[in-house]
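Can't paste images in this forum, so I'm doing it all in text. The chain is below; anyone willing to post the predicted structure tokens underneath?
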Amino acid sequence: MKLPTKQSAILGAAFLMATSAIGPGFLTQTTIFTSQLLTSFGFVILITILLDIGAQLNIWRVLTMSEMRAQDLANKLLPGLGHLLAALIVLGGLAFNIANMAGCGLGINVLTGINVEASALISCVAALALFWIKEFGSAMDMFAKVLGFIMIGLTLFVAISSDPPLLETVHRTFIPEKIDVMTIVTLVGGTVGGYISFAGAHRLLDAGIKGKENLPQINRSAVSGIVITGVMRTVLFLAALGVVVGGGILGEKNPAADVFQIAAGNIGYKFFGVVMSSAAITSVVGCAYTSVSFLRSLPMIEKYQRFVISLFIIISTLGFLYFGNPVKLLLAAGTINGFILPIALTVILIAAHQKKIMSNYQHPRWMHIAGWCVVGVMSWMAVLTFLKVL
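Text version of the structure:
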């Protein structure tokens, strides 16, 4: 596979991470939690962004400085650990991708009226086609960037149309009326949990962008991915908030679609179809690519990468057709991956101070501390969430 230009790959990695996070679960979770917490949801977004940055900077830097994918780094730290990490990531990724295919079905259904199941099959074929393009790495970068800009632009239009209470929102972002721990776990899990944490870093490694000479660009790419995700989350939050505060009633079947329709009428509803299908298909692509990258240490998988990615997408589609109920799937996927993040980040942080792995790279102390804070906070909140579910 021919390597893309450096700048294109750096931006592409940021958008791959961001559009992997900005999936149908992202849209559904943001809408539902906004209706529950109102302006206080701004505080949840702020905390989520801080936790995301703490996780992403550590993961991207350690992997690109070690010049190893996460599973190889974990296996070097402790034989067999990488296989366990790969199993967790792939299973979590599969849960996410089943939900992503649900989102594909919802989005195309809104645009065309074709039933959700058939729409998911159409999306499956489109995703498979992308991975069989000769230069699929460069095509994937461009695909993520173009659809990322489209999603943000259309959602911004709806946010302006919904006329949210901006001053009250700013106030409650820093002084919330209520805080929901499960909401934070779900959002962090949906933004950097599971495979998403590694999407950009693995893409940079595949593009040959690694080592200390590329450190400034790697940092910028990691933070850019989080910022893009945060902008989209905030814009969607404001759109939903304006609708709910204005008296709009969101249905249970497709609450994000109701936001777009109430705020901007029929054109808003069609915009939702574009945003949902774009969010879903980019997440399908990012999830399949990154999940399978955790299996590429096996020679057979490396040789037949495209076939394995295709199989992953097909299984995800069949999973959706079997399980159904898109909204419940979208919420559950984020929560599942919220449990995986502290485990994966712990492995990265321990490896960061192993000379046999990191060679002459010295991981910054402040970043190490920030990473352990994320592990502690996410572990505590994951336990609380688990007890709440019980």
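The chain has one domain: 6-389. The two ends are 48 Å apart (CA to CA).
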